[in-house]
Please model this.
Amino acid sequence: MKSKRIFNKAVILFFGLLPGVLVTAQAHPVHEAQGLSVFSALVHPFAVDHFLVMLAVGLWSVMALAGSGRTPVNIRQIMTGPMIFLLALLLGLTVSLLGFALPALETSLSLSVIVLGLMLLPVMQHLPKGCGLFVISVIGVCHGMAHGVEAQLAMNIATYALGLIIGSAALHIGGMFVGLFLKRWLVAAYSQMMALLAVIMSYLGFGLLFQLA
Model:
């Protein structure tokens, strides 16, 4: 009963805050035209699309890679998802700096939020781990290419990349922490909570997509 009350409160809170989130959300906030610093890279992961994707990767990694029930958690195994994403992020950043561009990049970023949102559905935990990690790597490359455009304006590309990785890793850890908390302490409501998070993520992804129309 307690888990059900928590779930109901989470639903109410989500729909109460959703209008404000969608009104104020920006996929990529406008920065100064030049002189981007490591601080800019640190705060950029908190742009709505990147923020949601970082959290989703952490959540999915716990759901798909941590095992079931109360079995001992293998942190190295859970870290596979975030590590692959961060490596793909750096790859995309490098590719972008070399002059390669992806058509409809902003649309791809919004779609990535929807895709990862759907991957949080409890039924998707049966998705082959290799397929899930491949999707994460492709999304990581897309986000890295988006950051590559900004990195070209940075005072120092290396420090910008470092700030981007640190900020992204922090959000991955946050997603993993939430996932582990739900999996260990809200066992009875875990599937419901993950389904709710999947709906939230996908809903916001569609919101970002419609903003581009």
